[in-house]
Amino acid sequence: MRIVLLGPPGAGKGTQAKLICETYNIPHISTGDLFRENMSKDTPLGKKAKDYMAKGLLVPDELVVDMVADRLTQADVAAAGRGFLLDGFPRTVVQAEALEKISAKNDLELDFAVNLEVPLDVLVERISGRRICPTCAATYHVKYNQPKDEGVCDLDGASLYQRDDDKVETVQKRIEVYQEQTEPLIAFYKEKKKIVDINGLQNMDDVFDDIKRVLDGANKI
Ligand SMILES: [Zn+2]
């Protein structure tokens, strides 16, 4: 099973990625982890990334692509029947085209681009309602997961706070950036008949059931 997982911040991508990878026994490949691994192991690609960061420069697309290409030739991908789930990559059409080339070269043709759909206003509510305990890192939500006493951690009584990243205006910006980059990406995979739209408004078990139905259907072919 070879999957790309798409979805805006707050769509529950992390939870679904975990469920998919456990169920289908495929490695979860996220760009964040790739960066951390390459840098902590001081690989040639990690060294290059560090050079850019030390200069205060953005890491160029081709370096990200090289990290993904390198990762897709590792043993666990082969052991999973050339399977993987990509999370956070591709983010742009340029990256998607690069992935097509890597796939063609390594006999790793993509099965699906799973697209978690959640309306903008819901995403903003989900993310901007998060509150975090500074002491134990427990997470709450002002509407969906309230502490017993407003603004106070159930476990240790510390005052909860909101991350800057989770403030309404920041969330709206993050989602706008995502939409600008990803809409063309969705069109790209639609044209290749790879896109699977999943209603991300349901609870996480129902979302996973919908994903599983599509992936299992594919397994039987
Ligand atoms: Zn706490």
TrEMBL record:
<dbReference type="InterPro" id="IPR007862">
    <property type="entry name" value="Adenylate_kinase_lid-dom"/>
</dbReference>
<protein>
    <recommendedName>
        <fullName>Adenylate kinase</fullName>
        <ecNumber>2.7.4.3</ecNumber>
    </recommendedName>
</protein>
<feature type="domain" description="Adenylate kinase active site lid">
    <location>
        <begin position="130"/>
        <end position="165"/>
    </location>
</feature>
<feature type="binding site">
    <location>
        <begin position="139"/>
        <end position="140"/>
    </location>
    <ligand>
        <name>ATP</name>
    </ligand>
</feature>
<feature type="binding site">
    <location>
        <begin position="88"/>
        <end position="91"/>
    </location>
    <ligand>
        <name>AMP</name>
    </ligand>
</feature>
<feature type="region of interest" description="LID">
    <location>
        <begin position="129"/>
        <end position="166"/>
    </location>
</feature>
<feature type="binding site">
    <location>
        <position position="202"/>
    </location>
    <ligand>
        <name>ATP</name>
    </ligand>
</feature>
<dbReference type="Pfam" id="PF00406">
    <property type="entry name" value="ADK"/>
</dbReference>
<dbReference type="GO" id="GO:0004017">
    <property type="term" value="F:AMP kinase activity"/>
</dbReference>
<feature type="binding site">
    <location>
        <position position="36"/>
    </location>
    <ligand>
        <name>AMP</name>
    </ligand>
</feature>
<keyword id="KW-0963">Cytoplasm</keyword>
<keyword id="KW-0862">Zinc</keyword>
<feature type="binding site">
    <location>
        <position position="95"/>
    </location>
    <ligand>
        <name>AMP</name>
    </ligand>
</feature>
<feature type="region of interest" description="NMP">
    <location>
        <begin position="30"/>
        <end position="59"/>
    </location>
</feature>
<dbReference type="InterPro" id="IPR006259">
    <property type="entry name" value="Adenyl_kin_sub"/>
</dbReference>
<comment type="function">
    <text>Catalyzes the reversible transfer of the terminal phosphate group between ATP and AMP. Plays an important role in cellular energy homeostasis and in adenine nucleotide metabolism.</text>
</comment>
<feature type="binding site">
    <location>
        <position position="156"/>
    </location>
    <ligand>
        <name>Zn(2+)</name>
    </ligand>
</feature>
<dbReference type="InterPro" id="IPR027417">
    <property type="entry name" value="P-loop_NTPase"/>
</dbReference>
<feature type="binding site">
    <location>
        <position position="163"/>
    </location>
    <ligand>
        <name>AMP</name>
    </ligand>
</feature>
<keyword id="KW-0545">Nucleotide biosynthesis</keyword>
<comment type="subunit">
    <text>Monomer.</text>
</comment>
<feature type="binding site">
    <location>
        <position position="174"/>
    </location>
    <ligand>
        <name>AMP</name>
    </ligand>
</feature>
<feature type="binding site">
    <location>
        <position position="136"/>
    </location>
    <ligand>
        <name>Zn(2+)</name>
    </ligand>
</feature>
<dbReference type="InterPro" id="IPR033690">
    <property type="entry name" value="Adenylat_kinase_CS"/>
</dbReference>
<feature type="binding site">
    <location>
        <position position="130"/>
    </location>
    <ligand>
        <name>ATP</name>
    </ligand>
</feature>
<feature type="binding site">
    <location>
        <begin position="57"/>
        <end position="59"/>
    </location>
    <ligand>
        <name>AMP</name>
    </ligand>
</feature>
<keyword id="KW-0808">Transferase</keyword>
<dbReference type="Pfam" id="PF05191">
    <property type="entry name" value="ADK_lid"/>
</dbReference>
<dbReference type="InterPro" id="IPR000850">
    <property type="entry name" value="Adenylat/UMP-CMP_kin"/>
</dbReference>
<feature type="binding site">
    <location>
        <position position="133"/>
    </location>
    <ligand>
        <name>Zn(2+)</name>
    </ligand>
</feature>
<feature type="binding site">
    <location>
        <position position="153"/>
    </location>
    <ligand>
        <name>Zn(2+)</name>
    </ligand>
</feature>
<feature type="binding site">
    <location>
        <position position="31"/>
    </location>
    <ligand>
        <name>AMP</name>
    </ligand>
</feature>
<keyword id="KW-0067">ATP-binding</keyword>
<comment type="pathway">
    <text>Purine metabolism; AMP biosynthesis via salvage pathway; AMP from ADP: step 1/1.</text>
</comment>
<keyword id="KW-0418">Kinase</keyword>
<keyword id="KW-0547">Nucleotide-binding</keyword>
<feature type="binding site">
    <location>
        <begin position="10"/>
        <end position="15"/>
    </location>
    <ligand>
        <name>ATP</name>
    </ligand>
</feature>
<keyword id="KW-0479">Metal-binding</keyword>
<comment type="similarity">
    <text>Belongs to the adenylate kinase family.</text>
</comment>
